[in-house]
Specification:
The protein is an alpha/beta fold and about 100 residues long. Helix content is about 35%, strand content about 25%. The radius of gyration is 12 Å and the shape is globular.
């Protein structure tokens, strides 16, 4: 399951989550973001129960993008206990994304 994170739910759903969280900052107009969408959806399904996966539309949630100093998208953050455990930018193969996630689980 994938969450849509906003300023209203980010603290509760991401920062206070008991499981690690993958946050995907994206925009609808971004080609690499669109290319990553099916991969992120597959990750959400495969890691259900071990990893919470959520997306932030950086155009609709500029405060969140600014809080994480997002300069390029797609930007990914893995949060553990409300802190950034890993961050990376750009499109990548599914195997590379899984490797980054597995290193934090």
């Amino acid at each position: 399951m994938e969450y849509q994170f906003t300023m209203d739910n980010f603290k509760q759903e991401a920062l206070e989550s008991t499981e690690p969280v993958l946050v995907d900052f994206y925009a609808d107009w971004c080609g690499p973001c669109r290319a990553m969408m099916p991969i992120v959806e597959q990750i959400a399904d495969e890691y259900e129960g071990r990893l919470k996966v959520g997306k932030v539309n950086s155009d609709e949630q500029p405060e969140l993008a600014q809080a994480f100093n997002v300069m390029s998208i797609p930007a990914f953050f893995i949060l553990k206990d409300g802190k950034v455990a890993d961050q990376f930018v750009g499109g990548m193969p599914k195997a590379a994304l899984k490797q980054r996630i597995d290193a934090q689980l």
